[in-house]
Amino acid sequence: MFVTTAGRVTDTMINKARSVAEDLDIPYIPRRKKSISQLQNERGGGCIVAGNESIRLFAFGEEEPFFFHPSSAMFRVKRLLGGGYDPMIEAADLRKGDSFLDCTLGLASDSIVASMVVGNIGNVTGIEANKFLGYIVKNGLHSWHSGVGELDAAMERIDVVHSVALEYLQSLPDESVDCVYFDPMFDIGIDESEGIKALRHFALHGGIGGEEIKEALRVARKRVVLKDHYLSKRFEDFGFTVMRRKTAKFHFGYIEKN
């Protein structure tokens, strides 16, 4: 992995690229009018491209980058602000002041919605095993301006941690988080946004199994929540109460602690 700049290079881009390279301890490679694919072939790996206003992550040999965008969180937050309903919030039974641990951060859409609900007296932590992906998302959460004050504040409050979910869970005390949440990559394909397709190139596909659920149940005070494909066997295997939705390709399940 290396860092370079967008095509029309400016001093701002160069400074940003050097800063990203230093943060991630990877090389900065000047663009010198070469294409991304040329640079990748020369270096033999993926890259991060720093523009004036964005940072994008390119998998080796891929033309479509991963970049941060609030995605579905934007309309979900607006719906909640208007008095509407969100199935993830219901499954988690989240309230103002709660703590929420997202073990599969990804694009952070669910963490953003959770952060808006728990407010500034609660807290949301997102775990991302891929340090490059986590860096892009953390940077985006702290710099994106949506024009919706509650959404921007919710993004800024999220704490992004680079770790494997199981290892992080094992480091936490018993009953130290109100809700532990999992949203693993579906093994069964569904129609996906471009953002999710790009995310798949970087997501770690170790899966969520018995060890993760056992640790989550130890750490959670209130609920452990799983979002998964409607055909997934994980709901039954681990004893989740499933909130079935007739037209949805994925369901939410929860295990109540007390």
Question: Which stretches are poorly predicted, pLDDT < 50 over at least 5 residues?
Answer: 188-193
* Biggest sheet record: 7 strands, mixed
What's the Cα radius of gyration? Answer: 19 Å
CATH topology of the largest domain: Rossmann fold
Structural class by helix and strand composition: alpha/beta
Sheet with most strands: strand arrangement: 6-5-4-7-8-10-9
Shape: globular
Order of helices and strands: EHHEEHHEHEHHEHEHHEHEE
Going by CATH, what is the homologous superfamily of the largest domain?
Answer: Vaccinia Virus protein VP39
Shape-level CATH architecture of the largest domain: 3-Layer(aba) Sandwich
Instruction: Bin the helical content.
Output: 25-40%
Report mean pLDDT, rounded to a whole number.
Answer: 90
Number of beta-strand segments: 10
Describe what you observe in this structure.
InterPro entries: 16SrRNA_methylTrfase_J (IPR007536), SAM-dependent_MTases_sf (IPR029063). One of its GO terms (molecular function) is rRNA (guanine-N2-)-methyltransferase activity. This is Protein-L-IsoD(D-D) O-methyltransferase. The chain has 258 residues and is an alpha/beta fold. The protein has two domains: 2-58, no CATH class; 73-256, 3-Layer(aba) Sandwich (Rossmann fold), CATH 3.40.50. The protein has helices at 11-24, 36-43, 73-81, 87-92, 109-118, 131-143, 149-157, 165-170, 194-200, 210-219, 234-237; strands at residues 2-5, 47-50, 55-58, 99-102, 123-128, 159-162, 177-182, 220-229, 241-243, 250-256. A seven-stranded mixed β-sheet has the order 6-5-4-7-8-10-9. The protein has a three-stranded mixed β-sheet with strand order 1-2-3, with helices on both faces. A hairpin with a 4-residue loop joins strand 2 and strand 3 (55-58). The longest helix is centred in the N-terminal third of the chain and has 14 residues, at 11-24. It is globular, with a radius of gyration of 19 Å.
